[in-house]
Design goal:
single chain; alpha/beta; 10 helices; globular
């Protein structure tokens, strides 16, 4: 098994960016997240042009490789392929998993594909589609996606008992509510502001990782 395969199998902390503008501070923040314990960083921005996303993606992939961590792209299979990302994360309104898989296969690349789900029905459908992992949430309300209705811990408990591929709880999770998310059965969490909006990104990531260590993955 390659180090990347092992990293995906064992991942606990998935850090998602919410980038408003391009700049060197973005790369410093991502490096700090990796060094603090993030296993995966997802490049996500609703503001940057494609050229900026590509520049950042190419730079982040180098940082990820240097730290032996994984780098994913949000939504964009084309940019994931161009930047050499390890994975791509799709939303409910994005292209089907099968289509993304066909594009990736045609390129001769290997890439993990994740999909956001907001109910048990969507989660089970994503498994049938062939997703490698799913996002379960938003567990709590989050300003990152203000229009998304939170699903609460019930969906986390359902995923714990019903979903047998890797899944990650996401949405409004922070160090104060992490324990109840873990108690509901989550072994992997994705965070945005709770890492990247802090004064000490490395420390925040390390605190999350410390609380997640020792939990058996499902």
């Amino acid at each position: 098994m390659s180090w990347a395969d092992q990293a995906f199998q064992d991942f606990r902390l998935y850090a998602v960016t919410d980038i408003k503008k391009e700049g060197p501070e973005v790369l410093r923040a991502i490096e700090a997240a990796y060094r603090g314990g993030a296993d995966i960083v997802q490049l996500r921005s609703k503001f940057l042009a494609d050229a900026a996303l590509i520049r950042l993606g190419l730079a982040i992939q180098k940082i990820a490789q240097r730290n032996r961590k994984l780098f994913f792209i949000n939504d964009r299979v084309d940019i994931a392929l161009v930047t050499g990302a390890d994975g791509v994360h799709l939303g409910q309104e994005d292209m089907p998993v099968a289509t993304a898989r066909a594009l990736i296969r045609r390129s001769g690349r290997k890439m993990w594909i994740g999909k956001s789900t907001h109910s048990l029905t969507q989660a089970q459908e994503a498994v049938k589609e062939g997703a490698d992992y799913i996002g379960v949430g938003p567990v709590f309300a989050t300003p990152t996606k203000p229009d998304a209705k939170s699903v609460g811990l019930r969906f986390v408990r359902q995923a714990t008992s019903k979903i047998r591929i890797p899944w990650v709880a996401i949405g409004g999770i922070d160090l104060e509510n992490l324990d109840c998310v873990v108690e509901a059965g989550a072994t992997r969490v994705a965070v945005v502001r709770a890492v990247f909006a802090t004064n000490d990104i490395k420390l925040a990531a390390s605190k999350f990782k410390l609380q997640l260590k020792g939990i058996k993955n499902v």
